Amino acid sequence: MNAKIVPVGVSARHIHLTREHIDILFGVGYELKPLKPLSQPGQFAAEETVAIVGPKGRFDKVRILGPARRASQIEISRTDAFQLGVDAPVRESGNIEGTPGMTVIGPAGEVALERGVIVAARHIHFQTKEAAAWGIADKQLLKVRVHGERPLVFEDVIARVSDDFALDLHIDTDEANAAGVATGGRAEIVDA
């Protein structure tokens, strides 16, 4: 059986914003300026950043990822959650029901998010044909060995399958630091 090798993408703290919240934070009609493309087609890191403020702390220069989304969402690591004083649950992106909120500050205004703060569940994006070739189904839980300075195996890695995705393992900075791996590293699916 051929090894199922996957590139690693390390996701630092970031925010996704709705069109409405971009207007409040940057001014009506403001368009985010792409800084660099991300691994997923059509997505980008924007030049713009915002501040996020929790009960115990604040982070400035939090990168916005574009394009605009249907719901605003802040993705942080567990370490970030401790520093901010927020009990962010581990969730799949987009699953923000029952999550805490936070204040977001931009150059033109601020938004008090009622919900949307999560620690993103580790996951692998698969293009549909790739997933089918490897016998992997959407939402399947995988076991993945990360080849870093301190190799380790992550369990319960969620398979996310779509025609619009490109192959990439997404882990947060806490997970990457634990394994001693960076974006561009590699991982191997060891149990599907």
What this model shows, in words?
The model has no long low-confidence stretch (mean pLDDT 96). The chain folds into 2 domains: 4-8 and 122-191, Barwin-like endoglucanases; 12-120, no CATH class. Strands 2, 3, 4, 5, 6, 7, 8, 9 and 10 form a 9-stranded mixed beta sheet that branches. A 6-stranded mixed β-barrel has the order 1-14-11-13-12-15. A hairpin with a 6-residue loop joins β3 and β4 (44-53). It is built from 4 helices and 15 strands. The relative contact order is 0.23. The longest helix is centred in the N-terminal third of the chain and has 8 residues, at 19-26. The chain is globular, with a radius of gyration of 17 Å. The chain has 192 residues and is of the alpha/beta class.
Summed up:
With about 190 residues, the protein is an alpha/beta fold. It is built from 4 helices and 15 strands. Strands 2, 3, 4, 5, 6, 7, 8, 9 and 10 form a 9-stranded mixed sheet that branches. Strands 1-14-11-13-12-15 form a 6-stranded mixed β-barrel.
Number of helices: 4
**CA-atom Rg in angstroms:** 17 Å
Q: Which stretches are poorly predicted, pLDDT < 50 over at least 5 residues? A: none
What spatial form do the alpha-carbon principal axes imply? globular
